[in-house]
């Protein structure tokens, strides 16, 4: 493609997402950075980080706990206390002042927690008492062995749905432009979806329809708070992260997407297969198959470059493209992609936790030019 054709591509042009006008089709993927303050409250550095990345058409916040039970990592933000809502108000204000839009990603980690992070030192909860077979829990005392989680009682499930609804209400109060239900990457909702982690024999386990029940109930609950065109959902059909597996992911996710069609959501966000998934024996679900099943806006994420993003939009595989690691290192990513400019390299050592180094000190093109 010529430089002019890239520069003028619809990827870099405004896009109408339901009733929201985005300045381009490039999305900041949700990225946990473990830099919230005590009480899991967003702080001034978090405001700067998101403000810097308001170059995206849409920002999706880092995963944010809906409840104390939903916590799975140190220093990750929540949306279940007044202090957290106040912290998020600062982030939203900063993004809006830069002309950006921001959705909050709603998170419950399920079994990917540790009793040291749970209220009263309780065991983490999950659909079933199945311990993740790989990885370790990240705690305030360092990495620890995962524990076998406690299977949620049937009578506790309405309480989980209510926690999502309450978090959605608080997100509205904080001024967000929308919310994304995190049903990807091996956390609670994904644990219910897949038969590798869901061994229940009640209405929430077994048949695909049953395993999709909790996700659909959560969506129903948040849709009583938010209009559908301001609600997205994230799924990772091919993902193996956090010990995920399923006997027939294509059937599972096709079923779910067909159900989602009727909701007319803002978008469905698909985390595409990556090398680690394939190494772990993950069964690849082609995004083309998902595209056929889903009739609304599709957002894709995973190893995208400018070239692949342009291809995805041109081929109508997706309406929106999210960038994760490249956006960590390049706050002005859309401009750099549009100009074909060189990209800063993300420093993996500062991804999770630490100071402002590797967080809010990546330079923009103009800052780099000024320092020469
Ligand atoms: C540091 C880091 C933190 C992440 N945190 C989240 C998160 O909070 N929620 C989520 O859904 N995905 C999370 N992901 C996955 C990313 O959103 C994205 O799917 C992944 O990085 C692949 O996109 P990329 O190749 O453009 O980086 C995280 C990834 C990284 C590298």
UniProtKB/TrEMBL annotation:
Residues 11-343 form the NADH:flavin oxidoreductase/NADH oxidase N-terminal domain. Pfam families: Oxidored_FMN (PF00724). Gene3D superfamilies: Aldolase class I. This is Alkene reductase. The lineage of its organism: Bacteria, Pseudomonadati, Pseudomonadota, Betaproteobacteria, Burkholderiales.
């Amino acid at each position: 493609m010529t430089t002019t054709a890239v520069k003028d591509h619809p990827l870099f042009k405004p896009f109408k997402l339901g009733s929201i006008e985005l300045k381009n089709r490039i999305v900041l993927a949700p990225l946990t950075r473990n830099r919230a303050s005590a009480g899991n409250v967003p702080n001034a550095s978090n405001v700067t980080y998101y403000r810097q990345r308001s170059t995206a058409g849409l920002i999706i916040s880092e995963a944010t706990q809906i409840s104390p039970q939903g916590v799975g990592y140190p220093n990750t933000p929540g949306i279940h206390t007044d202090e957290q809502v106040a912290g998020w108000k600062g982030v939203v204000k900063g993004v809006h002042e830069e002309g950006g839009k921001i959705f909050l990603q709603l998170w419950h980690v399920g079994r990917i927690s540790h009793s040291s992070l749970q209220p009263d030192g309780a065991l983490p909860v999950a659909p079933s008492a199945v311990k993740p077979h790989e990885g370790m829990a990240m705690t305030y005392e360092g990495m620890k062995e995962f524990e076998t989680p406690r299977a949620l009682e049937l009578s506790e499930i309405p309480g989980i749905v209510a926690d999502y609804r309450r978090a959605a209400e608080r997100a509205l109060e904080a001024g967000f432009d929308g919310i994304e239900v995190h049903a990807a990457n091996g956390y609670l909702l994904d644990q219910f979806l897949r038969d590798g982690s869901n061994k229940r024999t009640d209405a929430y386990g077994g048949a695909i329809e049953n395993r999709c029940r909790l996700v659909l109930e959560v969506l129903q609950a948040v849709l009583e708070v938010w209009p559908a065109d301001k609600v997205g959902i994230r799924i990772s059909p091919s993902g193996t992260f956090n010990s995920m597996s399923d006997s027939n992911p294509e059937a599972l996710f096709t079923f779910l997407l067909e159900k989602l069609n009727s909701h007319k959501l803002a978008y469905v966000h698909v985390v595409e297969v990556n090398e680690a998934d394939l190494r772990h024996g993950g069964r690849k679900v082609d995004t083309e198959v998902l595209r056929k099943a889903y009739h609304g806006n599709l957002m894709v994420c995973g190893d995208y470059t400018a070239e692949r993003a342009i291809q995805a939009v041109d081929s109508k595989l997706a309406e929106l493209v999210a960038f994760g690691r490249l956006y960590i290192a390049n706050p002005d990513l859309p401009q750099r992609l549009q100009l074909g400019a060189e990209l800063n390299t993300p420093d993996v050592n500062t991804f999770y936790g630490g100071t402002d180094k590797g967080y809010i000190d990546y330079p923009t093109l103009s800052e780099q030019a000024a320092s020469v």
